[in-house]
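Researcher: Here's a chain I'd like modeled. Treat it as a single chain, no partners, no ligands.
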Amino acid sequence: MSIKQKLTVSGVVIFSALILGYGVSSREALDTQVSQEPGSIKSAQTESRPASLTATPTSADGKILEEIKISLEKKLPGIEIIAVEPSPLEGFYQAFYGDELLYVTADGRFLFTGNLLELAKERPINHSQVAIMAMDKKRAPARAEAIAQVSESDMVVFKAEEEKYVVTVFTDVDCAYCRKLHREIPQLNSGGVTVRYMAYPRAGIGSDAYRKLVSVWCADDKTAAMDDAKLKRKFGQKSCKNPIADQFKMTRSLSLSGTPAIILSTGEIVGGYLPAAQLINVLSEKLADSPDSSKNTGQSGR
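Model: Modeled as a single isolated chain. Structure tokens:
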């Protein structure tokens, strides 16, 4: 359950949705916001903050951030706050929970979720999405390292003959967009993209989705079984010792919340489904300067 559901703040979410169209929300625009040099929209985000929030952090500031984290986890049982930072909105801090963001006062009394938009001179700035993408970039190396510890023998791998890139995809066979992505595996392989599947039964361990994934991972030919499951809706009955539960637990530590979750060799999350041609373009742009783009995440034959 998302933090939005836990807090039942649908009014805020609806308002955010109504004005989101005026924000900067495309993948390309957000990448630009996060990566541009001073003078860019990213700089505008920093410049828009009160002076008290842009000053050099002190030990006292760190204590406040830790107290906010402890307070939120106490008041909202079952959630884990990844990090707390000053926000561009005076009087509020931004707390990261999974792949979501919430805003809270220092005393923990007031809290809201949704997109924080600033009506800047050039165009609106979506501070929430900029912050989430920046946090994702910070966490990417640790995510890549975690996936690198998983043997490819515990994945279902569709390998490109002339491999240029490797993506790791956390998947659920009942997910419509996962099936749509799978139909484009031949195009991805032809474009030099090796696709490695890890299991993410969205309904949880022991569910029907879990048992379907077990039948795929336990098949004599895992790639053929994945084709049958996603393209023909045919499932075997095999069971064996398998990594499904461990991979499901990993989705929590990696802060994944949807399928398909496409992760680059650098550990960066691309997001959900992208058409094959668009995904190949994203890989080409993001990994252009990475000579080991096909080798950074989980070596073959581990």
